[in-house]
Design a protein that fits this description.
3 domains, 6 helices, single chain, mainly alpha
Length: 149
């Protein structure tokens, strides 16, 4: 058992949580596929194609450009690298946009039909969350820069 745990490289609790997560995800996937198998397959293939063929090259190119610019300007050792202070809020904002895009762009009437509420605030809420994420990141960067100097 110890040899297996040493080969795994993490604690038994980590392995237990990982197996439990896969079990919950598998159960949810089975329930989804049982209800609407064609829709799930179309969604899965569509998101894989959208991500791998369109979005991945775009954000790899954007990250390379930002990284190249950051490396050329970070000659000053007193300033901490700012790249991750831009990456993090951008990534979180992009994930939120992708998850809630139908409601943000008002492409789906499911939310309004299900809850009886308007989906109009979604765009404003997403913009507010994005602004707060960038504000927190800027404050943390300023604090780190000040401490470093």
């Amino acid at each position: 058992m110890r040899k297996a745990l040493r080969h795994y490289g993490a604690s038994p609790l980590h392995l237990l949580v990982l197996v439990g997560s896969f079990a919950v995800a598998g159960y949810a996937a089975l329930k989804l596929v049982a209800d609407k198998p064609v829709a799930v397959i179309v969604w899965f293939v569509g998101t894989a194609v959208l991500h791998d063929l369109i979005l991945l090259p775009l954000y790899v190119l954007a990250d390379r450009g930002i990284r190249r610019r950051a490396l050329s300007r970070d000659d000053d050792d007193a300033a901490p690298p700012w790249l991750n202070y831009v990456r993090f809020p951008t990534a979180i904002s992009a994930v939120l946009l992708l998850v809630f895009l139908p409601s943000i762009a008002r492409l789906s009437g499911v939310y309004a039909a299900t809850t009886g509420l308007s989906a109009n605030p979604y765009l404003l809420h997403w913009l507010a969350i994005t602004g707060v994420l960038f504000l927190i990141s800027a404050v943390l960067y300023a604090i780190r820069t000040r401490r470093r100097r």
